[in-house]
Write a structure and sequence with these properties.
- This protein starts with a strand and ends with a strand.
- It has helices at about 30-35, 45-55, 65-85, 100-110, 125-140, 140-145, 155-170, and strands at about 1-5, 10, 15-20, 40-45, 90-95, 115-120, 180-185, 190-195.
- By secondary structure, it is an alpha/beta fold.
- Helix 2 crosses helix 3.
């Protein structure tokens, strides 16, 4: 396991799965849109909302309704991951949870399908993340609240940032990966992808 903090040069060997993680609003999806081919990206959020629409549910206020959609989305995501692992020169997952247990469960499954596991952690300053998150979510806040999705407040996001920073400081963030890149400034990053 290799961890590169404040990464500026990211290399993606053929046969890799690239796993994006970081706080909500940190810029994970923005990063994938800039640096990776769209057809190689599996977006968890997009799949989750597609499964919600297909379910016919009006909301997810009850925990069992949310869990049902979450389970359906996970099934779709892992079927896509298996398919992409056989067909694509690399696969990007946007994104997985940064909780240690959740990430470990995902990485165990990835090890069986890919020759390289690369974790990219988008981790700018907290004030930047929180501002971006507020701007992004303001347009969809009402519709999310109607289906029972509550937005994390400043305190919750600050606590999550603390957990993420502790995992980086202790080296746990990169556990079970071949290489982990911590990106703090997207403006200075170059990504090289090996496709042959």
């Amino acid at each position: 396991m290799k961890l590169i903090d404040n990464a500026t040069d990211i290399r993606i060997p053929k046969g890799s799965v690239v796993i994006m993680t970081g706080l909500q609003g940190a810029g994970k999806t923005f990063f994938t849109e800039i640096f990776f081919d769209k057809e190689n990206v599996i977006c968890n959020d997009k799949i989750f909302w597609e499964q919600f629409k297909k379910s016919g549910k009006k909301d997810m206020i009850a925990q069992e309704d949310y869990q049902d959609i979450y389970d359906r989305a996970c099934d779709v995501v892992f079927k896509k991951i298996e398919k992409y692992s056989k067909e694509k020169s690399y696969t990007v997952i946007d994104s997985i949870v940064y909780s240690f247990e959740g990430r470990m469960n995902c990485l165990r499954k990835m090890k069986k399908m890919f020759s390289n596991i690369i974790l990219i952690v988008i981790n700018p300053e907290f004030d930047t993340v929180y501002k971006q998150f507020q701007e992004r979510e303001s347009a969809v806040r009402n519709s999310k609240e109607q289906v029972g999705i509550t937005m994390p407040d400043w305190m919750m996001m600050f606590a999550n940032k603390y957990v993420l920073d502790e995992q980086i400081k202790n080296g746990l963030i990169g556990y079970k990966t071949d290489i982990t890149y911590i990106v703090r400034d997207m403006d200075n990053v170059k990504v090289s992808i090996e496709t042959k």
